[in-house]
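Suppose you are handed a protein chain with no further information: no name, no annotation, nothing but its sequence. What can you learn? This example shows the usual starting point.
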Amino acid sequence: MDRKRAEALARLAALAALKREAELAKLAAVAQSRARLQGALQTLKAVEAPLDPGEAVSDPALVGARLAHRRWSEAQSRRLNQQLAMVTVDWMRQKPAAAKAFGRAAVLEELAGKAEAARKAEAAKGE
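A reasonable first move is to predict its three-dimensional structure. Written in structure tokens, the prediction is:
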């Protein structure tokens, strides 16, 4: 393999590596947002205390406050679930692009390595 072709493959491999890193960074950012939203939903579910029937008899104001909190909590849960759905769609779109960029970079790195090895072998043979 001639020197120009080996250099061209090396440049393509470098560009593919940059593209791979960019796609993986995008995927990581979306995955981080997704994990944050999932954590917020889990926290919201964990702090929700069940309503004790004994409290309903003794303190109606407490029941009203608990019901208001439950309505707020359900609204927050709906909002977080909607955001999570949108972020999950982004994540699902980014995943194949990152995989494709990763594969291209791997193949081009392998081809560039083989081209460089062939060029060195030809140079050594010519000496």
